[in-house]
Amino acid sequence: MNRREHLKLLLAGSAGAGLFIATGCSSEDEETSREILAQSELGYGRTEEEKQRDSRLMKEQFFTETEFEMVSILADIIIPADEESGGALDAGVPDFIEFMMKDQPQLQLVTRGGLMWLNSQCNSRFGNPFLDCSEDERMTIIDEIAWPDEAAPEMQYGVRFFNRMRDLTATGFFTSQIGVEYLDYRGNRPGFWDGVPEVVLEKHGLEYDQKTLDECIKEEDRNRIAEWDENMNLL
Question: What span, in angstroms and rounded, lies between the C-alpha atoms of 161 and 159?
Fold first, then answer.
């Protein structure tokens, strides 16, 4: 499956509908944590209480090293890098998911349980835990839980787990700088309204008078501050 097909899957259905929003990093990378804290203080208006909470959560660690490596592999499977853009790993998605486990504790049990389920499946089928399986063996399991409509009934727990991982990965990626640049999102930009279209005015037998045309803001004057003379006439 190529990157475009991955992203279509992410955005086409429920996988793209329940995105979580947060910022985060893992306690395994204290330098990254400090950078993100600095950005949050300068960037999006955190209250003092929110800053203290972010700082406390970033110092905590939820995933074990093995779990974090599993999460990293899953994130890379979901949004891999290609010639168009970096992927989930380049965007720091595993760190984001680590933070989300602490920011939303209700995710901890089901996420850890899902990782244990994944290891159990790999052990029973291939005689190795997920990290020790080959790429083909890993994808054998993933392919059985990545397509909810095609998954067998006995795989539904894995489907729900992978759906959550997909949601978290998509949220972490598309709220990162890499993800925003990939979408070419430019934010809100002011438009310019130059009046009712001529075709509509003509249809109703109307037209602007010259005074209105002269005094209405022109696009080339959109950033000019209005000025009036002593008789309160617009200059």
Answer: 5
pLDDT greater at residue 225 or residue 201: 201
Please give the C-alpha separations between residue 59 and each of 29, 30, 121, in angstroms, as whole numbers.
Answer: 10, 8, 32
Domain extents for the chain? 3-183, 193-235
- Radius of gyration of the chain measured on its C-alpha atoms: 26
Identify whether the C-beta of residue 138 lies closer than 8 Å to the C-beta of residue 130.
Answer: yes
Q: Per the structure block, which two tokens stand in for 201? A: 């005015």
Residue 117 backbone zone (phi > 0: left; psi -120 to 50: alpha; other: beta):
alpha
Collapse the DSSP code of 234 into the 3-class scheme (helix H, G, I; strand E, B; otherwise coil) and give the result.
strand
pLDDT band at 231 (very low <50, low <70, confident <90, very high): confident
Q: Is 123 exposed, middle or buried (0-12, 13-18, 19+ CB in 10 A)?
A: middle
Tell me which of 7-11, 151-155, 191-195 is least confident: 7-11
Mean pLDDT of the chain: 82
Q: Where are the alpha helices (DSSP H) in the chain?
A: 3-12, 30-43, 48-59, 65-78, 93-103, 106-126, 135-145, 156-174, 177-183, 198-203, 210-215
169-183 burial, b if ≥16 CB within 10 A, otherwise e?
A: bbbbbbbbebbeebe
Give per-residue pLDDT as tens, 158-213: 999 999 999 999 999 999 999 999 998 888 877 777 788 889 999 999 998 887 77
**How far is residue 127's CA from residue 218's CA, in Å, rounded to a whole number?**
72
Q: What are phi and psi of 211, to 5 degrees?
A: -60, -45
